[in-house]
Amino acid sequence: MFVYSVKSSKLKLIALVAVAAAAVIALLCLTQRGRPTLGGTVRLAAATAQERAAFLSQFGWEAGEDPLEVSEVIIPAEFDETYMKYNEIQKAQNMDLSNFAGKRVKRWTYEIRNYPGYEGKPGVVQANLLIDKGVVVGGDVCSLELGGFLHGFDFPRQAAVVTEAATTAAVAAASTAVAGTTA
Questions:
Q1: N or C: which terminus of the chain carries fewer CB neighbours within 10 A?
Q2: Residue from 163, 183, 182, 180 nearest 80 by CA
Q3: Which of 154, 150, 153, 104 is nearest to 124 (CA)?
Q4: Three-class SS string for 145-166?
Q5: Is 99 left (phi over 0), alpha (psi -120 to 50) or beta?
Q6: Which of 138, 143, 174 lies closest to 160 in space, CA to CA?
Q7: Each residue of 67-78: pLDDT tens digit?
Q8: What is the distance of C-alpha 6 from the center of its chain?
Q9: Under 8 Å CB-to-CB from 183, ≥6 apart: which residues?
Q10: Closest by Cα among 121, 131, 116, 129 to 68
Q11: Are 82 and 177 in contact (CB under 8 A)?
Q12: DSSP H or E run through 131
């Protein structure tokens, strides 16, 4: 028979390590609450110009080096119908702006140079990145043309074909959700 005795100091050390590990896990869970994942393979870092360019390039976008605009926007505390529609676009790409309701975020707007069918039209297609603490939390790709389009970050497989109702809802959502809430 084998007998092993443990001094109380070893038990205290083990208990301390267990409590510390639990605290680290809890802290990680709390800091990641509300952060988007985009399927787990997309890097959401956007604190620097290089990270923002890398974020867009993950989807196949070629963006201008310098942003067209940088502004601070407030995500409304309560979403109206238009903002709820805009948030549906976010949810479809595993982002949810309701986690940021009432918060200020930065919107970085970049020119998209390689949108199918718009290659020769500079300044018509833009990407909007909504960023909180150096992490992309939402955004879209949109056309500035009358009757244009608005969708998530995914690169279209072919030239965008959007129904009139979807275009109207998307443009209304973009104008209210992105441009209309500038602080």
A1: N
A2: 180
A3: 150
A4: CCCCCEECCCCCCCCCCCCHHH
A5: alpha
A6: 143
A7: 999 999 999 999
A8: 51
A9: 71, 72, 73, 74, 104
A10: 129
A11: yes
A12: strand 125-132
Q: Is 113 exposed, middle or buried (0-12, 13-18, 19+ CB in 10 A)?
A: middle
Distance CA 81, CA 77 (A): 13
Spatial CB neighbours of 141, under 8 Å, sequence gap ≥ 6: 61, 112, 115, 125, 126, 127, 128, 150, 151, 152, 153
Look up residue 86 and give its amino acid. Answer: Y
Tens digits of residue pLDDT in 153-176: 999 975 444 444 444 444 444 444
Q: Other C-beta atoms within 10 Å of 109: how many?
A: 19
What is the model's pTM?
0.67
Angle at the Cα of 97 from the Cα atoms of 144 and 84, rounded to 5 degrees: 70
- DSSP state at residue 24: H
